[in-house]
Design goal:
Layout: H1 8-59, E1 65-71, E2 75-86, E3 92-101, E4 108-117
Antiparallel strand pairs: 1-2, 2-3, 3-4
Length: about 120
């Protein structure tokens, strides 16, 4: 008797291989989505930090200190903090602009630092 077909064991092994491959591909896709979202938010944060730094440079820096705020309704998930401090050089100020997004353990940030001549 010569019956052709697959045994139950062969079918189960094939399903195991397919399921494992599917899980690996799904995980890979999820990691790609997470990486793309992080890249998008980092790009936006970099542009917002650069814009805030330009505002500070154009407005002139008088005093040392800190300030904080948000980017209005356009970017509600992003906030900023600025720090102006003295340097060892007379009339030169250090400006640090930090942009933050996310909450709790998932909070991320980036910052730009520049040195400019302060108003006398």
């Amino acid at each position: 008797m010569n019956k052709s077909g697959f045994t139950l064991l062969e079918v189960m092994v094939a399903l195991l291989i397919i399921a494992t491959s599917f899980i690996v591909l799904l995980h890979s896709r999820n990691q790609s989505v997470i990486a793309a979202d992080y890249a998008r938010r980092t790009t936006i944060a970099t542009l917002l930090a650069s814009e805030k730094m330009s505002e500070m440079e154009q407005g002139g820096v008088h005093e040392t200190g800190e300030d904080a705020g948000n980017f209005s309704e356009d970017y509600p998930e992003f906030t900023w903090r600025t720090t102006v401090s003295d340097t060892v050089y007379e009339h030169i100020k250090e400006i640090r602009v930090e942009v933050l997004w996310g909450e709790g353990q998932g909070q991320r940030s980036l910052y730009l630092v520049n040195h400019i001549k302060g108003k006398e």
